[in-house]
């Protein structure tokens, strides 16, 4: 597995023929969800770069940054079967942030005003800053992101439009464990008891989806809080039904319209997010 800490050296080392370059940005602690992005990128590009970098500017709390799982050796083992077509970019801080580690400010409108944006001020400025740096250094043809972070995907699409970048953003479906829990690098931080209880999150969302034509937003919200607050050591940051384009939460549902549910829950000290789409008949 070829690993580079310098984007300039990485691009110089990519072998011909060179027709397109796929980028899969990650913060490491790779799991099958990441690999599904890598596999799609391999099908659609002549070369693929997987970046591994825990970006400090998108963390609101120092303790969350310090707790984030890191194991580059295991990540490289996970990627080893793809080494014929994949190279790894594990940049230094100086390579991504040559002027110092600091987030820029962007104007994304409603996309960052609600949901994660409301509960993690400055988070998306940090995300956009590191993605802008990655895009400028790697200059990918396509970049791949998972829909578990749906709000992040919308923000990155807005970033591309704002800066008129020539990269196609590919949004990929959420990958889940057999019990329904959305795959996440943070799942390894769950205790045995928390991991056993965590599927309740998706199960509750599924019940709400089944009742989407009978329940209003208030009933959906009440059911979610009732079910999740009954789980020991689980606390809710938010439950919201929102317009998938603007990400503005709604309190009334209309027929023949698409919506997304967004949730964030703490299982002990570990924060879990999930999202599901539904259509109202």
Question: Would you give an account of this structure?
Answer:
With 281 residues, the protein is of the alpha/beta class. The chain folds into two domains: 3-172, HUPs (Rossmann fold), CATH 3.40.50; 185-280, Pantoate-beta-alanine ligase, C-terminal domain (Pantoate--beta-alanine Ligase, Chain: A,domain 2, 2-Layer Sandwich). Helix content is 36%, strand content 21%. The protein contains eleven helices and nine strands. The chain has helices at residues 7-13, 32-44, 62-67, 72-79, 93-96, 116-119, 123-138, 150-163, 192-197, 200-210, 217-229, and strands at 3-4, 21-26, 47-52, 86-89, 142-146, 168-172, 234-242, 257-267, 270-280. The strands form two sheets. Strands 1-4-3-2-5-6 form a six-stranded parallel beta sheet, with helices on both faces. Helix 7 packs across helix 8 (150-163) and helix 10 (200-210) packs antiparallel against helix 11. The N and C termini lie far apart (50 Å).
Any chance you could write out the topology, listing elements then pairs?
Layout: E1 3-4, H1 7-13, E2 21-26, H2 32-44, E3 47-52, H3 62-67, H4 72-79, E4 86-89, H5 93-96, H6 116-119, H7 123-138, E5 142-146, H8 150-163, E6 168-172, H9 192-197, H10 200-210, H11 217-229, E7 234-242, E8 257-267, E9 270-280
Parallel strand pairs: 1-4, 2-3, 2-5, 3-4, 5-6
Antiparallel strand pairs: 7-8, 8-9
Helix pairs in contact: 7-8, 10-11
